[in-house]
Amino acid sequence: MASSVPKPRVAVVSGTDRRENIRQAQLLLGDPYVERIKTARQLFIHPNLVSDKNQLASTHVEAVRAVLDIISLHRGDEVLIGDASYHDTKKAFERFGYESLRRSGNARFLDLNDDETVETFAYDRHLARQPMPTSKTVLESDCVVLIVPPKMHSYYTVSLSLKTHVVGSMVVPRSPFGIHARWPKVHSGYLAAHRTLADWYQQHPAQAAIIDGREAMEGNGPMSGTKVELNWAVASLDPVAADAMAAWLMGFTPDEIGYLVYLKAAGWIIDPAEMEVVGEPGWQRLRQELARPETWPEIAEWRENHE
To answer: Which of 30, 31, 98, 236 could lock 242 by a disulfide, CB 3.0 to 4.6 Å apart?
Structure first.
């Protein structure tokens, strides 16, 4: 990605109506978003469904409905919706009411844990690439729209759109404990984990990201943190910029997030001051200092090793 790339447009909307926030954020992305939707050969909506028990840890059905609201204005063919849950994707669809989305669009639900795979990679602690089976559907979709809640993460610092896109597309067998444990391969050291997100994403970018900040998880995420109401939504055709803006609104500076630092070195813009921010005139006032995970001092080790 060349350093001369135009400023990424990032929409920031505030309000207490989740669905309306996300609808308005998409509209603010304008014709380029519409064209991306209209011309896509295969649309894939990727929510975060890491847990089938904790709604706060997973994408709310109304957030996905807001995405379908806009898509259905421009096309009526099948839209794929799926994730590779750490627990049980099918149970998450059922428990969180995803079946109701059929009233909002022509949706087909996919458990990516059952998908055909293509080999990609994750770094081990020595930064050697190890093979990683990855959803063929995700890699073959030419328009991937990520729709996620903002969460703290005990390993990646934050769980936003890139973490969902990369790790939530990786496919591993169900263990005897009933989970799809990707962590032995992706939790191989903090530096390696952030490098995996950054380098994998550069090879397999997504086309849009929407971060539903109506509620967020602070503290010991991605599944055991506590709820905080933020009442905003962020959207961009540049998921890196969307993550950087969301991280800033959660109280971080972009250079505190390892994978964003690596992507900045590759040419992406991660400073909100360098973005074209549309929507909320006083978006800076939305920033809150969220409680960081207990592992934060350890997570920051990526920087010592990086430097």
So the answer is: 236
